[in-house]
Each structure stands twice: as C-alpha cells, then as structure tokens.
Amino acid sequence: MENKTKIPLLNIDGLSVITERGIRLDRKTLPNGEYSQEALLNLLADDWVPLMECHKCGRFSYCKFVERYPNDPKRGKQIQCGVVLTVLKNFLAVSWERLPTYSPAQLQNFFDGLYYFAQFIYEAEVTIGNLLNDEYLDWAGSDLARKNFGFIAHLRAHIDKFAGEFRELNDYGTLGRWFSVEGEAEQEFIERLGELKFYTAYVGGVENYGGKGNAKPSKFSLYLNSLKNRGYSVAIQGDMDSGKTNRLDALIAENLVERELTFPFSKDFEGSFPPPVLHKALSLSGYDIALERLTNAMERKGENVEPIAIFIEKVTSQKVSKVKLARNLAEVVASNWSKIIELYPNSEIIKWLEFLRAGRL
Questions:
Q1: CB 340 within 8 A of CB 329
Q2: Cα separation of 165 and 110, whole Å?
Q3: Is residue 44 classed exposed, middle or buried when 0-12, 13-18 and 19+ CB atoms within 10 A define those classes?
Q4: DSSP H/E element including 42
Q5: Are 258 and 252 in contact (CB under 8 A)?
Q6: Average pLDDT over residues 299-313
Q7: What span, in angstroms and rounded, lies between the C-alpha atoms of 92 and 107?
C-alpha cells in the first residue's frame, strides 16, 4: 500500500485578503483556524477568480480545462478559469512548507502578493487568448484590436505589486535589480554589454540620474522608494572626481541605500579603465592620442586633476562623445575580457563589473 505523507494544516490568525468590490479593492478578514491547501484555495478562488463562459475565451478551441455543453459543443459552461485555479493550487503547494515559518507581517505580504499574481495570470490568459483569436480580432475591428495588443503593457502593474509584496520573501527570488548611474556614458556601457550578452546578470533596468548635482537625498528619495516598492534592489554608481568626498554618503546617511549597494569611482567612469583599454576604444571612436601620453595623464593624482575626457579634448582639439566612447569601451572589454582581467585584476572597471554582476560590494 502506498505511503502518503500527510500534508499539515496551516494556521491562520488575524490575516486578511484583498477582494474586489466593483472597481475598488477592499479587504476581507479570513476566519481564524487551520486550513488545508484545498480549503484555502477554494476560499481565495471565490474572491479572486471570476466565472466566465469558456467559449468567450480565445483559448476555447484547445484549452484542456474547457467544459462544453454536450448538446452544444460550440459553447462552454460558465466556470472559474482552470488555468488560474491550477497555477494558484501549485503556488500554494510549493509554498506550503515555508508559510508556517513566516512572521504575521510576512504571511500578510504573501497573501497580498498572491492576489496580484492571480490577477496577472487571469488577465494575461484572457488577453493572450483574444490576441490569438482571429474571429475576435475581426469582430473587434482595427481600432479596438490595437488597444487589445497594447493592453499587455498594463499587466505590469500587477507584477510590480506582486514583486513589491514579495520583496522581503527571499524564497521566491522576486527581488529585481536596478542600476542607477551618474551619466549617459555609464548607462550606454551597461546596456551595450547587455546587448553583447556579456558578464550580465538579470537586470530590471538601468537609468542615469543626470550628473552629480542630482545625487542628493531630496531628489533621490521618491525615486528610490518607488523602485523599492516595485520590488527592486537599487545599486548606485557615482564619481568622486579625484576628490576625497563620496557624494553617495549623503544617500547612505539618510538610509535611502545601503553602502554595499553603492560604487564610487575614485576619478570618473572613463578614468576607471586601464590606459591600453581606453586607448583602444578612443582609437575606435576616432580620437588619436599617443598611449604613453594618455597613460601619464591617467596616472596623475591629486584633487585638482582634470577628468581624462577633458584632457583628451585638449590634446585632440575634438569634442569627446562620451556615449560613443562608452559603446566602444564595451566592445573592447567584451572582446578582450580574459586578457584584461589577467593583466589588470585590480583596476576599478574590473571591480565595478564584479559589483554589477553580484549586485553589491
């Protein structure tokens, strides 16, 4: 006789779930007590999964959950979406052993996030079904059909809220990574590395904050808190411009970011590369300067040392396009990585790339 392990019950005490009341969200307190997976699923599904006639879904012709009328197989019965029910059932099943270990606040986060997850699955399933259905699109007409395709973008609101609720639940890996960099050059460098599929982990996005003048708590607080509420861990890069002051310290002091999530270049982005690497990228970008002269300039120390890009402009009498240079720097790094890391293991750009990969110092 097969020996089946008995699945323990989950104790619920003082928790609530999100429900819909017309066009607004409300809350309903769950009755205290012990719940099986099936009982909890049924309770959640009653509020979260609406009834729908299967033939009105674009997946009607092939969905395995369809229940047809025997005397009218072109019509489906009104049921709760089997895709959503099954996904919710599986989500609860893989989470069941961890739920008793959560604090009341974490358990509340779990159920709030699970609501937004369920809404995403339902709306994505119905929307994609419509986009696959030629008959529906013909009926809708071009104007409405275009809006149906565009509606996909609105589903991200559910995912953002799901990730925001789950950001403290490390079991699920929902915490996204977002990089905030000082300028357009740094952003171009990271994005080009991503295009080259080089040395990158999953990154939700990279944005530049428009220069050191904007690295202030008053300007960063809303931005950082918005990203955190959407489930992102935000790492920030800045330049010290050969000075002694790390401008990112002000953000750390205000508890807007952890020190381990900041990376200040001692000089600046361009000055963080080994001279031969920067020289190669300069050549590809159309700037002619002797390697020895460039090396001597990059090795200068002191608070009054000018940025290397300004030095290059003076020598070449050309305006340096930092974005173009950053793109070529990414090309050089990607093509010569093994040699660069062997010859210059302690260079700042190596340390920054390690920081980008790990997400923190």
A1: no
A2: 7
A3: buried
A4: helix 37-48
A5: yes
A6: 87
A7: 12
Q: Which residues contact 239 (CB under 8 A, 6 or more apart)?
A: 182, 212, 264, 265, 267, 268, 269
Alpha carbon distance 84, 70 (integer Å): 24
Q: Which H or E run includes 225?
A: helix 217-229
Q: Give 297's pLDDT tier (boundaries 50, 70, 90).
A: very high
pLDDT tens for each residue of 230-287: 888 888 998 886 666 677 888 888 888 889 989 989 889 999 999 999 999 999 999 9
Are 159 and 120 in contact by the 8 Å Cβ rule? The answer is yes
The residue among 109, 120, 119, 118 whose CA lies nearest residue 229 is 109
Taking the C-alpha atoms of residue 79 and residue 288, their distance in angstroms, rounded to an integer, is: 71
Structural contact between residues 316 and 277, judged by C-beta atoms closer than 8 angstroms: no
The token duo for 138 is 């013909």
Range 338-342, long-range pairs (CB < 8 A, 24+ positions):
340/274, 340/277
Length of the chain: 361
Quickly tell me which residue has 């793109």 as its tokens. 327
Selection from 261, 237, 247 nearest residue 349 by Cα? 237
Beta bridge partners of 308: none
Residue 212 in contact with residue 238, Cβ under 8 Å?
A: yes
Q: What is the tens place of the pLDDT at every residue in 16-64?
A: 999 987 678 899 999 999 999 999 999 999 999 999 888 888 888 888 9
Residues 119 and 158 sit within 8 Å (Cβ to Cβ): yes
The answer to whether the beta carbons of residues 13 and 108 sit under 8 Å apart is: no
CA–centroid distance for 282 within its chain: 33
Question: How many CA atoms are closer than 13 Å to the CA of 153, on its beta-carbon side?
Answer: 4
CB atoms within 10 A of CB 179: 24
Q: Beta 176-181 vs 232-239: how paired, if at all?
A: parallel
